[in-house]
Amino acid sequence: MLVRSAVIPAAGLGTRFLPATKAVPKELMPIGDTPAIQIIIDEALGAGIEHIVVVSSRTKPAIEQYFAPDDALVATLREKGKDDVADRLAAIGRDWRVTIAYQDNPRGLGHAVGCGREAVGDEPFAVLLPDELMGDSSLLAQMNGVCSSSGGSVVGVKEVPRDQVSSYGVLAPSAPIDEAGVIPVADLVEKPPVAEAPSDYIIIGRYVLTPDVFDEIANLEPGSGGELQLTDALRAQAARSPFHGVLARTSRHDTGNPLGFLEASIAFGLRDRSMGDELRAHLASLVV
Ligand code: G1P
To answer: Left if phi > 0, otherwise alpha if psi is -120 to 50, otherwise beta: which for 66?
Structure first.
């Protein structure tokens, strides 16, 4: 079955980016000229997704504004001969469908994903956490394939040094990883103490989930940090259905803090054909 919708949780307050986020939602902060959330959306579209469900908050109206058509601006740009940027603006929400769902009372990632239930409907869907930027769509595309062939949910995975596992959801594999980087999963645990972590494989912010997860989310009790944890809903799925992790082989940037955001900006800038060479030369001149 095709994965058509992607849920992007974007209702957070962005406290780690204050004072910038007092006025500008973190998801709209630019990497070059592109809002971070658009890079996430482009990754989803590259994996065949056609419906973007943004879970936002009514305190962040700029998010809606970004997705609203602006025919007058597009026309002005065309009159000035700026067709490239006009095309980019016109494509927003036209070449793919966007639905805004609201999470007005932030109660955790599980709760945020549950707010997308009506928009997603009764079919498998992706979740992309916007604090993590991937180099391309290959991981999500592979995860979609594993979901179709196994009929169960799939998470993106990375191996980290043992002392870092407590910041993440951690997998308990039921068999070794295969050549394609696929790991069968028996159980998952959210932010375990290092001594209790079942492996060094952590969940990164990419998920392809079967829709029964919404019932598990509806039944969640507060977990780690007193929040309704998505990992706890996945744990219930893994206990009764096929469940897999897929190892990420693309580059990955954690943009959840200002240093990581800056690093991602530089990495994306270096890859950009219009400014990569100049940026590389400039960086070299700064660090000698
Ligand atoms: C969330 C998830 C966690 C996952 C992480 C990936 O945690 O709850 O399982 O490993 O994202 O970034 P958060 O970073 O929101 O605390």
So the answer is: alpha
Find the 275 Cα to ligand 1 centroid distance in Å.
Answer: 33
| Tens digit of each residue's pLDDT (9 = 90 or more) over 194-215 | 999 999 999 999 999 999 999 9
pTM value?
A: 0.96
Could you read off the pLDDT of 49-92 as tens digits, one per residue? 999 999 999 999 999 999 999 999 999 999 999 999 999 999 99
Using the mean position of ligand 1's atoms as its centre, give its distance from the Cα of residue 99 in Å: 23
Nearest to 172, CA basis, from 163, 156, 183, 160? 183
CB 237 within 8 A of CB 213: yes
Domains, the chain: 5-286 (3.90.550.10)
Mutation choice for ligand 1 from 16, 109, 252, CB with most ligand atoms inside 8 A: 109
Which residues lie with the beta carbon below 6 Å from any ligand 1 atom?
109, 129, 132, 168-169, 190, 202-205, 229-231
CA of 202 to the centre of ligand 1 (A): 9
